Amino acid sequence: MTPYRGRFAPSPTGPLHAGSLVAALASWLDARAHGGCWLVRIEDVDGPRCPPGMDELILGQLAALGLLPDEPPVWQSRRGSLYEAALDRLIAAGHAYGCACTRAEIAAAVGPRAKHGELVYPGTCRHGTLGRPVRAWRLRVQGRVDWLDRRLGPQSQDLEAEVGDFVLKRADGLWAYQLAVVVDDAEQGITDIVRGEDLADNTPRQIALQRCLDLPTPRHLHTPLVLAADGHKLSKQNGAAALDLADPAARLREAALRLNLAPGPAASTPGEVLAAAVAQWTAQWTAQCPP
Length: 291
Ligand code: GLU
Known about the structure:
- By secondary structure, the chain is α/β, with parallel strands linked by helices.
- The chain has two domains: 5-79 and 181-285, HUPs (Rossmann fold, 3-Layer(aba) Sandwich), CATH 3.40.50.620; 93-169, Glutamyl-tRNA Synthetase, Domain 3 (Glutamyl-tRNA Synthetase, domain 3).
- It has helices at 18-33, 54-64, 80-92, 103-110, 159-162, 177-187, 203-212, 248-258, 270-286, and strands at 5-8, 37-42, 74-75, 96-99, 136-139, 144-149, 153-158, 167-169, 192-196, 219-223.
- The longest helix is centred in the last third of the chain and has 17 residues, at 270-286.
- The protein starts with a strand and ends in a 5-residue tail after the last helix.
- Glutamic acid is lined by residues 9-11, 43, 181, 195, 199.
């Protein structure tokens, strides 16, 4: 049996907030509940969006909460050669192709927008760029992907119709999240992905990539989103407040409640909250889905 390996993979575009703590805590709890390893990966491929020092700030916040990775963290910005090798393999196998289209050209060709607010690429360059210079690299997708989420149940997405051939390397030369996350999860031997539900609709793209690269697909559990008072998802982009870590045990208790766990008032230190939450998580999640 493959030993459990989980991860928390923050993009250091802002400090941890109440929403990202829920994802961090859930991934940590699931790793502990399975007697597994928990890793932290800094997803800083989009360098211009990551303020200097934000990575260390997040690692410090996690440490203050008692969420300590079992192996040294890795930074995606230092792993470009792995992504390059994967893209080369995809190109050689005919799964990836160069695209010369600008966003404006795609918008003009497509009209309607996909449900993620992204344009469904109409496949203009699937059979070549007709001599135009390559700007970005895309994955050729086909049909529908079905997958099972431990919390959401059976899921399905018509990748071809709803997403289209998606970008692996951007026109500005930056690696796309989809490629980096798939390469890293495989390279780090991740067996279980536990993350926020906002990423659930990215999963079919990642499964398609895993299939093209002959990589295993991890199990998935997407956690409930934390909504702001106005009903919007809490996110760094809409300025969610950084966690107030004067009382880390209180922040952990709040995050645990969002996961339907109630570590109780007797748990007054971060270690006590975490221990109580692991016991409850184990009862709630591992009975249903043995490793
Ligand atoms: N880096 C992504 C984020 O912060 C999470 C990626 C993942 O867990 O797959 O939203």
